Amino acid sequence: MTIDDIRDLLVKAIAVEAGISPDELATDRPFTTYGLDSMAALSVGMEIEDTCGLTNLPVDLLWDHPTVDTLTDALWKLLDAQQPGAGSASASADGLR
Description:
Layout: H1 3-18, H2 38-52, H3 61-64, H4 68-82, H5 88-91, H6 93-96
Helix pairs in contact: 1-2, 1-4
């Protein structure tokens, strides 16, 4: 999974929750702009866990990282930390971005 895959996943999941087209979602605007509440955040969090294979995500993840751009970076770091030989994503980020 690349950082672009993560961004695409988030755009699609948040657009579904917001009831808009993924093309309408600006990745630098706060999720609250699109009317996402705690239930929508929970749904997006479950989608992230299912698709990325991450478990036990913090419940406030979307509030701590309130845009697609900031959340993408945070998830990339979490995925990197779970990989064997942690640090591989940052070492090879240029090739994967």
